[in-house]
Amino acid sequence: MAKATRKTTKKTEAAPEASARVAEAPVLRKKDFVERVAKISGAKKAVARDVAQAALQVLSEALEKGETIAVPPLGKMRVTRTAVNNGASVLHIKLKRGSADASGAAAQKDEKSAADPLAEGAE
């Protein structure tokens, strides 16, 4: 029985540390998101705001419908369960991300396939 007690104690001690890390995570607000998109894309903020709003709306609607979203480099996202909390819809989402090496390999594969078409122009 001593072993079971030790295992239980270890799990109890680890849980508060994990939840503390999540609680301290910074929040990326929509305004900051738009600013980053504008900076990376070189677009004006007004254009970046409209495009970011449209992209977020498409993602939101797809998740509400229960669709799986596969958007590299973000990853593959799917709703695992839904709930209603105080009138708000709560979606539990699983996000599977590949390693940095896998993303690079996929990009190289896409470049190679784009350079080597399956059929010739005359076919």
UniProtKB/TrEMBL annotation:
Keyword DNA-binding belongs to the record: yes
Protein name: HU family DNA-binding protein
Pfam families referenced in this protein's UniProt entry, alphabetically: Bac_DNA_binding
Organism the protein comes from: Sedimentimonas flavescens
Gene3D superfamilies found in the cross-reference section: IHF-like DNA-binding proteins
Sequence similarity: Belongs to the bacterial histone-like protein family.
GO MF annotation list: DNA binding
InterPro entries with a match to the protein in the record: Hist_DNA-bd, IHF-like_DNA-bd_dom_sf
Keyword DNA-binding: yes
UniProtKB keywords: DNA-binding
Annotated stretches, region: Disordered: 1-22, 98-123
